[in-house]
Amino acid sequence: MGMFKAIDTSSSGLTAERLRMDVISNNIANVNTTRTEDGQPFRRKMVIFQARNAQGHWPFQDRLNPQVAGRGVRVNAIMEDMAPFKMEYNPEHPDADAEGYVRRPNINIVHEMVDMITATRAYEANVTCINSAKDMTNSALGIGGR
């Protein structure tokens, strides 16, 4: 049964990290978006993870039993970064205000690329865990057949 728990835990990490990579990609794609549907510049999005229990939720009794670990992760929320927008002087831009300043998205490409690398490495680590669990199970099944 341990193999299935390991695979389930790692698969929850795969799903969460995949969503995180999608959100980071969306941030990078909108680095120059100065006007969205609401008339504001694009705001950076962040994925918030939360530990999950065996049912995939976070009930109160899990807080009372901290020894239980390794049940995986789930996405709790996708939040907007409320950091101020970047201001750029460009009076020729169609979104410039009366003083000639354009509000740019609060996205730092270097920060997004670092986040993408860490999400990719976490994804790869979860794939390695799944493959290791499969290899150990295959080895254990092979012991009885010799």
Explain this structure to me?
- Helix content is 47%, strand content 16%.
- The longest helix is centred in the last third of the chain and has 36 residues, at 109-144.
- The strands form two sheets. Strands 1-2 form a two-stranded antiparallel sheet. A two-stranded antiparallel sheet has the order 3-4.
- It contains three helices and four strands; from the N terminus they run αβαβββα.
- The protein has helices at 2-29, 60-64, 109-144, and strands at residues 45-51, 73-80, 86-89, 101-104.
- It has 146 residues and is α+β, with helices and mostly antiparallel strands.
- The chain has a domain at 2-31 and 45-80 and 107-141.
SSE diagram, text form:
Blueprint (H helix, E strand, L loop, with lengths): L1 H28 L15 E7 L8 H5 L8 E8 L5 E4 L11 E4 L4 H36 L2
Antiparallel strand pairs: 1-2, 3-4
Helix pairs in contact: 1-3
